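As the work plan foresaw, our protein records have gained a structure token line. A representative record is set out beneath this paragraph:
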Amino acid sequence: MRVAKQPRAVATRERILAEAAGLFALKGYHDTKIEEVLAAANVTSGAFFHHFQSKEDLAFAVLDRHMQKRRAQLQRIEERRKLPASDDPLERVFRRLDAIQEMVRRRAHGKGGCIIGNLSTALSDTHEAFRRRLAAC
């Protein structure tokens, strides 16, 4: 995967990732065609292949983006919560669990399923590279 540096290239890559994530969540990996991603992101196949080598490469990037966004969201939620009254490690665990609960509650009104769940269901039994990647999530 190439790393985009120019603002326009970064925006194009992000658009592709966002649209692919939405389509994977709604339709699943196998039922989402690259042509649908191109149309939704309003990009050419040349732009797509500038950023991604394949649909598989795109799916890995979608997973990475999803996990990065979720970690950042969880961190923001947790930072807004009250600090534990003591240094008890269990208090920090409860604070994290409360933040996770809030993150899940916010997601309740989203469309489609969980990207990780959808990709796991579709690919973990048949695709070793996805199985390893999903296990790391």
